[in-house]
Amino acid sequence: MRYVLHYYKEGKLDTQRALDKIQTRTGIRPKTAKHLYLRWTAIAASVLVAASLGTYLYLKPSTTTLTAEATQQVYRLPDGTMVTLAPHATLSYKGDCRKVEMTGKAFFAIHHDANHPFTIVDDNYAVRDIGTQLQVEESAAGTRLTVLEGAASFGSTRSGSTAVALRAGMSAMLTDGESTPRLDRKADLNSAAWATHEFHFIDTPLDDVLHTLSTYYHVHLTADNMSKRLTADFDTANLNSIITVIEQTLDVKIEERKE
């Protein structure tokens, strides 16, 4: 600093003149230099934006959507969960298949994972489960959950709502606009026969048995003695075989009429 002050003379240290000399030697005009600077800045910004967008799109999980058209469809999710979609139902998830959304009716045979519960969510409800078999059915009135095996919690997404715990053999209905599901007095476990292809009756009144079969096969069944009760398991392949077993087991005569 002392050296500069000692030898400084007015007009000798002119930064503008020095800059002009450099520009003259390089052949770059002041306006051109500024233009190039702005141009390269814009290019660098564009590259940065493109790189950031590419990284976002690469890291953003894609949505997987499963559908069933006119007939039911069975899908195996990456975690091993089996899902049966009723006609016109859909199921979708982003990245993690342990959190799904659905429309319509679906049956789930959920792969057990105690550290990673399986969640079925919607704008109105949430079902959480570790590993079990259950059915979720959406309708204009609301959503019904039926648990066939294991246990699950079922609640509304509205603030202040209370979830209910359902065990095997239980079902509940969450009506649109309500904050807490209502437990059904009597769960129809055979409501999932369309997906399991099995009927299960435990000390069931014959009237209820025939009603279940009539609904499933779209017929009308009656018997000459409705006071009997039935405990049996059937597959859904052949109605005539089921009728024959019931008649022989309960010593009744069943009449079938087409609807």
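(the above was protein one; protein two follows)
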Amino acid sequence: ADAIPHSGKYDGVLGVLGAIEALRAIRDSGLRLKRPVEALMFTSEEPTRFGLSCIGSRAMCGRLDAGYLNSLRDANGTGFLEACRGGGYCKDGATTAEVLEASYVPKGGVHAFVELHIEQGPMLEDEGLDIGVVTAIAAPASVTFDFVGNV
């Protein structure tokens, strides 16, 4: 699970561990569900070392190009596929296209998503509330500026 720098020690981790615990509780309760339930961790959702956000969810939706991903390098010159292999996200010898194909879920393949997330501001604390329900979020974005001229 990725996290924004200085976002708190539970950012990223809480959602993953919370999902695993929810699955355990459902299993232990014996509850029979109408639909399958899975824990899912998207990698690289926040602005990443490759300058591209939402890599995991874009891959799942089929919104990434293998050639473009192959062109990405981090500050150390490490390529995207090399980083995937180093993190255990794909087998040695797998191509970027194969990684993307394995990540893809066709439209309609998921009924709903639920995410447990830490509060990244003081609103709940200020209101004396333990929990809140988010109904909308701001989409992540990053911008690069090049300034040309004389100072």
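Reviewer note on protein two: The chain has a mean pLDDT of 87.
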